[in-house]
Every structure is written in C-alpha cells, then in structure tokens.
C-alpha cells in the first residue's frame, strides 16, 4: 500500500511539473517572446540633412511604424483557426511594439481587409471593428491609412458606395495632405491614379495639382502663392507620398 501511495504521489508531482512546463512554454511563446524579440529593435540615429534646412533639428524626431497588406480574413476565405492564429500574432506584435517603442505615427499601406471589395455592409462593419480592436493605439499616436484594391476593389470594379464606406470609416480621402511635427505627408488612393475620367480619378488629380501649388507656396514660390494663399502647411518639407503599389 505504501508503494502504491508513493507511486500515486510521484505521478501527481510529475503531472504538476508537466502542467507547469506547458503553461510556462505557452506564456513565453504567446506573450513574452514578442518582448524579447521586439526589444532588440531600436530607432535609427538620424544625421542632419542639409537638404531640409527649413526644418530645425531639435532632436524631436518623428518616429513612424509602417505596416502593409495585413489582409484581415473575412467569412469566405481561410480557415477559422488560421484567422484566429494570425490575428492574435499581429495583435501581440503590434501592441508590444506600441508599448516598447511608442511611435508617433503608424502607417497602414493598403489591403487592411482581404474581402473588403466583396463583403456586405454588416460584414464591413464587423471588419472595421476587428481592425480597431487588433490595432488599437493611444490617442496621441496618429494613424495614416492608404486604401488598397482589396479594401474597395480594383479600378474597374469600383463604385461610389464601396469607396465612400471605406473613406468614411477611416477618414481616408482619395488624396489627403497633412503635416505632423513639420513633416508633410500626402496619402493617395492608387485606384484614383488611372489617368481617366472615372468618378474617383478626376477629383483626385485636381487635388494633387492643388497640393503641388501649396507645396510651392510653402517653399517660397510667390507665383504659386497668388493662386493658393490659404495653405494648411506651416512650413515646407519634402513630402512623403503614401501610396499602394498595385500588383
């Protein structure tokens, strides 16, 4: 009886150790590993750029994080476990990076959704909610979003409804100009750059010309300022163009 009791006790201890090992491995792989890897990344040390003499280098640099083609799966393509697994990994990687490195801006370069061009209104609402839950960021971090073809369709499959619902959900105009800490960004919807007279293309091309005048005016071109006096630019800097390359 004593021998049997000893064996049972040993088996219980072994199970406890095995369970503790499994839990430790799970916690490390699903939480701690992201901190171990991402903590090794550092912001680059920037050298003064003589080309941007109009921007005073006070050491307060703009830190940007770039993500592209996250392709959140919809209800048609992909297995539910694949969706669960990849979204958890993206969520943990993103939140860990935000916590450790605190970028000033996060750029999403197109194809947020895998089935945005096909999904129903209810599916799109659920898509948007999932995106904000997965990639939640503090209010002081600016999110810049450029549309991709999977978000609203290729050029010839576009329609005003698909374009408007994405633009409304993410404040993503066909062409958008903004300046953050003296750095100028121009976000362009690639589907609006086909060069024809589509409902999206002509207004976008007009907006690009207006922004060009604003930039010239901010740079000191007096003639450009005659045509565009009311510029939202506080100072000139070489613009960073955010646009999706369609393949």
Task: Describe the 3D structure.
The longest helix is centred in the N-terminal third of the chain and has 37 residues, at 2-38. The chain has one domain (61-243). 46% of the residues lie in helices and 13% in strands. Helix 1 (2-38) crosses helix 2 (80-101). The chain is α/β, with parallel strands linked by helices. The strands form 2 sheets. A 3-stranded parallel β-sheet has the order 1-2-3, with no helix packed on it. It has 7 helices and 6 strands. The chain crosses the membrane at residues 12-36. It is found in: Membrane. This is Metallophosphoesterase 1.
How is this structure best summarized?
The protein is α/β, with parallel strands linked by helices.
Key words describing this protein structure:
about 250 residues, about 45% helix, metal-binding, alpha/beta, 3-stranded parallel beta sheet, 3-stranded mixed beta sheet, Metallophosphoesterase 1
